[in-house]
Amino acid sequence: MSLNIAIDGPAGAGKSTIAKLIAKKKNLIYVDTGAMYRAVALYILRQKTDLEDAEAIASVCREADITIRYEDGVQVVYLNGENVNAFLRTEEVGNTASKTSANPAVREHLLSLQRKLASENDCIMDGRDIGTVVLPDAQLKVFLTASSDVRAKRRYDELVAKGEAADFEKIKADIEQRDYQDMHREIAPLKQAVDARLVDTSDMSIEEVVDTICGLI
Question: What dotted CATH number matches 31-121?
């Protein structure tokens, strides 16, 4: 039986950063669910599907077979056998993924692909509903969080380091709004699974968080 670790939590809690580091340390596959949504969006774009036609999107998305592998230490996303890493981070694909991810059929299709990946590999997956919906039988579930002030400060520092303009109060308001939306959405809302271990990273370094979760593993 494969080892599955689910990490859930609000925006800006550092889930992806932590999950990638643990994957490297424990030789697990990090399943980037966001990249999978982008790969579906890429397929839908390539099929020239009307993005306002929910039924057409539902029909087309089922033809997209997506899997994730590691090659030379790099995560590679395959769409119907093609390495599509080079196409996933464009503005057009990102905007399309934002629209198509709300389609229940897209979510359902990716859910089955994510569970298939988890059944065949030792993996770590992060998101909003991994422990509650995607991998309810994961051997370890972690709910990773931090105060909205800390999460806003991290994002603020990130933007400043890149030389971009940043407004701390606006970032914090956006994070709190995102939290509310994630916790109150109709499909798979953000919540801590009853058997998840709570890890509050507000006063922890990245290394301390990684060591804590590795200890739980």
Answer: 3.40.50.300
